[in-house]
């Protein structure tokens, strides 16, 4: 039990919490229940369906909303007399400078990438504010305390570059600074790490959703639209209906992933206040007509042994080092889907 003096210190403390995800939800709950009365939260992300299995302050109805703001609302339902200030923003924004950090008695990190952690660590050192750093690896958690002049800082020991990327950190919201997924097909500038995350997203989520075991859990959530533009959360766009041929099926997937889902993300204007907006892409704008003759006729292409041919070779693209145009990338997507699906039917 805390002494009366300790309780007064806790009640009078001003706390900054960076990150309102898996760790952040637990931190905020613990802070509120421990007696802290002035808590500030910084998080640039919005809530996704894949967050709901572990970030217990959020519900299905919160998808698309600010994590920091929804977390505040959830805590105030059972601790209405405390002050919680949310910032739907990037901790690297100029407003969160050294003077801002000096306002706090302690900073708690609940981040999922090294770049942001290093940034917060340097600000805490400059402002001479204690930092409580926390993270997870699989089922294991780590907590370290960093106080200038008393302990080593977060960066005093080199941190290894991650060789694997937990699926829970791969999201559909573009975010170069957070090291998460940037919208595919090059609609925004990307760093090397962004490319790695794109590959992981495609391999572990999209590919598994298209061709993997449908009974296995998959965090990929794609907002789908019907003909009149209304969102249908219950529809599984990855299910090919009996009246769809392969091209119709491919166009549906393409439009929902790169079009409707991006438009739904753009509807939250607050997310893009300090970030470049992605541009939705619809296949009708790239390939307006049915793919009858990508390189000769489809029937002629199918005469070759499709079990060993690649989509690139099938379309006559010979140099794998070439930078594909958007149209070429789209044709590759459609042809790869056709080849793989037809090969699977033969097995």
From TrEMBL:
Matching entries from Gene3D superfamilies are given as: NAD(P)-binding Rossmann-like Domain, Ubiquitin activating enzymes (Uba3). Chain: B, domain 2
User: Which residue ranges traverse the bilayer?
Assistant: none
Q: Does the keyword Secreted apply?
A: no
- Gene Ontology biological process terms, A to Z: protein sumoylation
Q: In which pathway does it act?
A: Protein modification
- Please name the GO terms that the record assigns under molecular function: ATP binding; SUMO activating enzyme activity
Sorted alphabetically, the keyword list is: ATP-binding, Nucleotide-binding, Ubl conjugation pathway
On whether Membrane is a keyword of this UniProt record, the answer is: no
One GO CC annotation, please?
A: SUMO activating enzyme complex
Domain THIF-type NAD/FAD binding fold, by residue range, is 3-173
The record's annotation in InterPro entries points to:
ThiF/MoeB/HesA, ThiF_NAD_FAD-bd, Ub_act_enz_dom_a_sf, Ubiquitin-activating_enz
The record's listing under PANTHER family reads: SUMO-ACTIVATING ENZYME SUBUNIT 2, UBIQUITIN-ACTIVATING ENZYME E1
Protein name, as recorded? SUMO-activating enzyme subunit 2
* Naturally occurring in which organism (per UniProt): Acorus gramineus
Provide the taxonomic classification: Eukaryota, Viridiplantae, Streptophyta, Embryophyta, Tracheophyta
């Amino acid at each position: 039990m805390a002494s009366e003096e300790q309780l007064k210190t806790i009640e009078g403390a001003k706390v900054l919490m960076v990150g309102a995800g898996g760790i952040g939800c637990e931190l905020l709950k613990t802070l509120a229940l421990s007696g802290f009365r002035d808590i500030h939260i910084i998080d640039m992300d919005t809530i996704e369906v894949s967050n709901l299995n572990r970030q217990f302050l959020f519900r299905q109805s919160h998808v698309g909303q600010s994590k920091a703001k929804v977390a505040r609302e959830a805590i105030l339902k059972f601790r209405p007399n405390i002050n919680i200030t949310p910032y739907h923003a990037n901790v690297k924004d100029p407003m969160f400078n050294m003077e801002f950090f000096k306002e706090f008695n302690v900073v708690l990190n609940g981040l999922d990438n090294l770049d942001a952690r290093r940034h917060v660590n340097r600000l805490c050192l400059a402002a001479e504010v204690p930092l409580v750093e926390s993270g997870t690896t699989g089922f294991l958690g780590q907590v370290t305390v960093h106080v200038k002049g008393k302990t080593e800082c977060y960066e005093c020991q080199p941190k290894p570059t991650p060789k694997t990327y937990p699926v829970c950190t791969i999201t559909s919201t573009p975010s170069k600074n957070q090291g998460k997924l940037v919208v595919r097909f090059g609609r925004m500038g990307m760093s090397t790490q962004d490319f790695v995350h794109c590959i992981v997203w495609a391999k572990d989520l999209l590919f598994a959703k298209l061709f993997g075991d449908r009974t296995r859990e998959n965090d990929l959530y794609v907002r789908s639209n019907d003909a009149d533009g209304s969102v249908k959360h219950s529809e599984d766009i990855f299910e090919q209906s009996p009246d769809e041929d392969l091209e119709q099926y491919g166009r549906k997937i393409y439009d929902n992933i790169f079009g409707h889902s991006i438009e739904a993300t753009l509807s939250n204007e607050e997310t893009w206040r300090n970030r470049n907006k992605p541009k939705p892409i619809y296949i009708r704008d790239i390939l307006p007509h049915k793919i009858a003759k990508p390189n000769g006729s489809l029937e002629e292409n199918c005469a070759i042994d499709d079990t060993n041919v690649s989509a690139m070779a099938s379309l006559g693209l010979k140099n794998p080092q070439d930078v594909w145009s958007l149209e070429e990338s789209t044709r590759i997507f459609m042809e790869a889907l056709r080849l793989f699906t037809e090969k699977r039917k033969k097995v």
